[in-house]
Amino acid sequence: MGNAGLYGSKQGDGYTCKAITILRRFFNGGHIGIVGRILAPHQRMVVCIVEDRLSEEVAVQFLLLSLTKHCPDLAIALFFPPATAAFKHWCQSFPQIELRTTPVSNQQGWNVKADALLQLLREGHQEVWWIDSDIILSRDFRPRLGVLAENTLVIAEEALYGMYRDQSYRARAWGFEIGQLLPFTLNTGVLRVTPCHLKVLEAWKSALESDRYRRAQTLPCGQKPFHLFGDQDVLTALLASQAFAPIPLKILERGKDIIQYFGPAGYTLKERWHNLIHGLPPFIHCQREKPWHRSATPPPWRRFRSCLDYVRLEVSPYCFLARRYRAAIAPTRTLQWLNYHSLMGKFLAILGCGHPALTGLPISLLYSLSRLYKKVKGIDDQFNPRQAYHQLQLREAIAVVSAERS
Questions:
Q1: Separation between Cα atoms, residue 348 and residue 362, nearest integer Å
Q2: Using CA atoms, how far apart are residues 360 and 162, in angstroms rounded to an integer?
Q3: Which residues contact 341 (CB under 8 A, 6 or more apart)?
């Protein structure tokens, strides 16, 4: 992945990137003056959080509490249209939070990301970080990432469980010319963009507003084409395409930079071992199943899979960290979901000796043994993007023939 001279002549935003670099060096040298006093407020990094569901308010609060603790100097732009009077009052304790109750756009859910990032960049911010509302921080993420070039786009590696593999078949399915091979899907739970990325953000926004994508979003999850499943599948396709392959990527690695806690493979033995030695990654992402929505009554053991899923949420590293902030939220709401309700959850918590990498380790061991068994038996039940792509081509060919006959 070359940078082509900050995109060179192929990417018009390259000149913007160079200008930003010069201005930052100018400011860092202490030569701010009148121009600096005008421009400096917009040179700072801003974190973007968007949530349009009142049911996720508690998750937003935990993210804000962890952000303000570990990154107290960061400005936060929070778009939360359903904010209640109580929530607005709660936010007043944090001067770095700018609460906005006007919707970013007509898009909803994960499809709003491109709109929100573009809006903040156009307001003059030079570095915008998107963080999903179901993420909690364990520490400041900036030391881990070091100094990033202006044209580096930060994005995460997808969770291992689900449609993990890519091999750039999403770009092929969109009809893009392939510019680079991406072995796995990119996850947009954490994103870092600058004015250098305006073109790819515009292309992403356009694709998410296309009839092709919108039609796919009306289908049940099991029927959605793999390249149209969600916003991150579209961005993965764009970044693998020839048009945007020159953009340098900093990919947050599972287990080292982020825990993608989704399904039985959400926290593997290898990741846990790494975290025992080096500590938790900065970002803990609680994907799909949310512990704050689970029942206080565990399912019976005869429903073994459901019971295991319940316990897995109970002993998640997200809950482990969220318990630290309970006192900051508890006066305004009940947080019974942070308690251990199952006997197995209580047992694993004791077994874990107060360490998130050890708590729940037996569940990861069960998953590893099941994967080993399948490997020995030659069973490959993981998502195959090549197969999905050929099935898509076949369906499209059948549709064309049917249309011609009718």
A1: 8
A2: 20
A3: 296, 297, 298, 314
Sheet strands (E) in 132-229? 135-137, 153-157, 186-193
Residue type, 251: I
Those residues whose C-beta lies under 8 Å from the C-beta of residue 39, and which sit 6 or more positions away, are: 23, 27
Q: What own/partner pairs with CB < 8 Å and gap ≥ 24 does 266-272 have? A: 266/159, 266/160, 266/161, 266/312, 266/316, 267/316, 267/317, 267/360, 267/364, 268/160, 268/364, 268/367, 268/368, 269/361, 269/364, 269/365, 269/368, 272/357, 272/358, 272/361, 272/364
- 112, pLDDT greater than 70: yes
Q: For residue 192, what are the β-bridge partners? A: 129, 154
d(CA 326, CA 329): 5
pTM: 0.88
Q: How crowded is the C-beta side of 266, counted as CA atoms within 13 Å? A: 20
Q: What are the DSSP E strand ranges found in 56-171?
A: 75-79, 97-100, 127-131, 135-137, 153-157
The whole-angstrom separation of Cα 279 and Cα 21 is: 33
| Edge-to-edge strands, sheet with 135-137 | 135-137, 283-286, 258-261
184 strand-pairing partners: 165
How far apart are the C-alpha atoms of 130 and 147, rounded to whole Å?
18
Indicate whether 16 pLDDT > 90.
no
d(CA 48, CA 79): 8
The whole-angstrom separation of Cα 267 and Cα 374 is 19
Residue 375 has which token pair?
């490997």
Q: Name the one residue in this structure whose structure tokens are 């508690």.
A: 58
**Selection from 121, 122, 242, 259 nearest residue 192 by Cα:** 121
For the record, the structure tokens of 264 come out as 């039985």
Distance CA 390, CA 368 (A): 30
Give the tens place of pLDDT for each residue, 163-180.
899 999 999 999 999 999
